[in-house]
Amino acid sequence: FLPQVDSANAGRVLASDAAVFLKKSGLTDLVLGKIWDLADTDGKGILNKQEFFVALRLVACAQNGLDVSLSSLNLPVPPPRFTDTSSPLLLSGTASSDLPWAVKLEDKVKYDAIFDSLNPVNGLLSGDKVKPVLLNSKLPVDILGRVWELSDIDRDGMLDRDEFAVAMFLVYCALEKEPVPMSLPAALVPPSKRKLLSVPGAMPLIPSSTSTKESHQSLPPVGILAAKTPLTQ
């Protein structure tokens, strides 16, 4: 990574160069700002090689749902992911558009059945229809908010069949105690949506300070257990 942002080969990275590179992680500016503050220990606006590696490690932590803090640095996480297809971290150099979708076919059939049971209109489900399903999972509201933000890939406030499958996949991961990522991994983006995500940072998160009432419209339902449990509002 260092040669990509240290073009002068000076063994250090300027804030301006690092910002351009780190934005490719798909994390929000707020999270990236926190990462920079932790890595730039002397506040000079320049990272040496060691500090740059700390920044990369914190990006990986954030992408895997871990706290952005120095205490997370020793936790085992996969390498950070960046949208630049020339990045060595992109699954052996495979372009994201060629990655197999993480949602398995047999699971997609189940998710489609739940989707159809919620009476979609023009192939779309509104947040009000999805919300009871999400809440049935009994997951914390902040986690469900992140699930909605990640799955509403085209930011239209509705979920189509593929986006709904992403939401269900994330809910089941959370129920298995797996962290919900801060940004959507390339392998989880439906093939039908991958052109939309050519712009990094297209998926901001709901601010944690947002109240339940304020986020009512943007916080959709996760009715993951809808297949077995009748939906009650």
Automatic annotation (TrEMBL):
Gene3D superfamilies (UniProt xref): EF-hand
Annotated CDD domains: EH (cd00052)
Domain of life: Eukaryota
UniProt KW keywords: Calcium, Metal-binding
Record bears the keyword Cell wall biogenesis/degradation: no
Residue ranges annotated for the EH domain, each copy included: 1-83, 107-195
GO MF term list: cadherin binding; calcium ion binding
Residue ranges of every copy of the EF-hand domain listed in the record: 27-62, 139-174
One term under GO cellular component: clathrin coat of coated pit
SMART domains the UniProt entry points to: EFh, EH
Entries under InterPro entries matching the protein: EF-hand-dom_pair, EF_Hand_1_Ca_BS, EF_hand_dom, EH_dom
Pfam families documented for this protein: EH
Keyword ATP-binding in record: no
SUPFAM superfamilies attached to this UniProt entry: EF-hand
Name of the molecule in the record: EPS15 factor
Organism: Callaeas wilsoni
